[in-house]
Design a protein that fits this description.
The protein is built from 3 helices and 11 strands, in the order ββββαβββααββββ. It has helices at about 50-70, 100-105, 115-130, and strands at about 5, 10-20, 20-30, 35-45, 80-85, 90-95, 100, 135, 145-150, 155, 165. The chain has a 6-stranded antiparallel beta sheet with strand order 1-2-3-4-6-5, covered by helices on one side. Strands 7-9-10 form a 3-stranded antiparallel beta sheet. β2 and β3 form a beta hairpin. The longest helix is centred in the N-terminal third of the chain and has 21 residues, at about 50-70.
């Protein structure tokens, strides 16, 4: 996929990693001044039958909606675009230049109490914002936290496992709507 263009404008520069159903690439936006760096996340369904593609499309659209909703937080990458091309789904996000926390743990000395408190305050602040939007990340781990080189702040990545929290609605006739509920109310 290297040196190809997706979405008519995102030139793939470098492979970054692979997860369960996605690959991520460093890319540059060929239609913007100075060709800014971005991350292209390619989600590929395991099969291309109509039912699987429709289910993948629904999950893809849900992730995109959540990312659009959350992307105005300084410590969550903005979603720049999302599109489907050749039965594959793509998300394009801001590139965060930095090291993930997993690598930092492996290469640094033991952390001071002040460093741990700073990390917790930052991550809990991000999660409070996410939860205020009725979203649960479900995959907070060191490799999904990047320490941004620019300012040393931690940025939370990979909202592919998010779940939106809904409350159950019971109609006057006693019927319940189809809902997804994660965790305990309150």
């Amino acid at each position: 996929m290297l040196e190809t263009k997706v979405g008519g404008r995102y030139e793939i520069v470098k492979f970054l990693g692979r997860g369960g159903f996605a690959e991520t690439y460093l890319a540059k936006d060929a239609q913007m001044p100075f060709n800014p760096a971005c991350v292209v996340k390619k989600l590929k369904p395991q099969t291309t039958d109509a039912a699987t593609l429709q289910a993948a499309r629904v999950l893809f659209d849900r992730e995109a909606q959540v990312l659009y909703q959350l992307g105005n937080h300084d410590q969550i990458p903005r979603l720049l675009a999302h599109f489907e091309e050749n039965l594959e789904f793509y998300l394009v996000e801001d590139f965060v230049d930095g090291e993930d926390l997993e690598k930092e743990f492996a290469t640094s000395q033991p952390w001071t109490e002040a460093q741990v408190i700073d990390l917790l305050e930052q991550v809990l602040g991000i999660l409070a914002f996410v939860h205020q939007h009725n979203v649960i990340h479900r995959d907070v781990k060191p490799s999904n936290l990047i320490k941004r080189k620019l300012d040393g702040k931690f940025v939370l990545l990979d909202f592919g496992a998010v779940k939106q929290v809904h409350t159950q609605v019971v109609t006057a006739g006693g019927h319940t709507s189809v809902v997804l509920s994660i965790g305990t109310n309150g």
